[in-house]
């Protein structure tokens, strides 16, 4: 891969570089938190690419969407294990930040009970910033709506 010219990378170049970083992390037997964080960044990059640029064909769009979902799932599964297997900090993030990210990811995957538990932990924990607690309160409202919808459909 030729080095890009200019001050910014294309999404495809950035994603390729993050994939190389992931392979490197796997080869050096890096912590699960590092690998999960790289997967999360790849998923975010792919999502941004899909939101901000037109894709050549529907087939290419579906392929990139599936890739984004796969990396997002790997990040979610990895960070779930990280909380019980590693000690903070996790790639520069404290446990509260990782729990907040996991709560958002659990919402995305429809795991509302898990999201509710994570948000409840954050709302009752000491040392959580007011800003994060405010975001958790907003998320709590969304979770309650989704849980009511789920119970109504049963």
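Q: What amino acid sequence fits the structure above?
A:
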């Amino acid at each position: 891969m030729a080095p890009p010219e200019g001050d910014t990378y294309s999404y495809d170049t950035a994603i390729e570089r993050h994939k190389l970083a992931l392979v490197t992390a796997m080869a050096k037997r890096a912590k699960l938190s590092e690998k999960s964080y790289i997967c999360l960044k790849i998923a975010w990059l792919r999502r941004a690419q899909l939101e901000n640029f037109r894709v050549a064909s529907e087939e290419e769009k579906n392929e990139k969407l599936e890739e984004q979902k796969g990396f997002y799932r790997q990040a979610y599964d990895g960070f779930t294990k990280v909380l019980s297997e590693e000690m903070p900090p996790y790639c520069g993030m404290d446990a509260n930040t990782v729990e907040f990210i996991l709560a958002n990811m659990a919402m995305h995957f429809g795991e509302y009970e898990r999201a509710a538990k994570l948000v409840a932990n954050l709302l009752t924990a000491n040392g959580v910033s007011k800003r994060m607690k405010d975001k958790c309160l907003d998320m709590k409202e969304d979770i309650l709506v989704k849980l009511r919808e789920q119970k109504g459909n049963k």
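Q: And what stands out in the fold?
A: The two ends are 52 Å apart (CA to CA).
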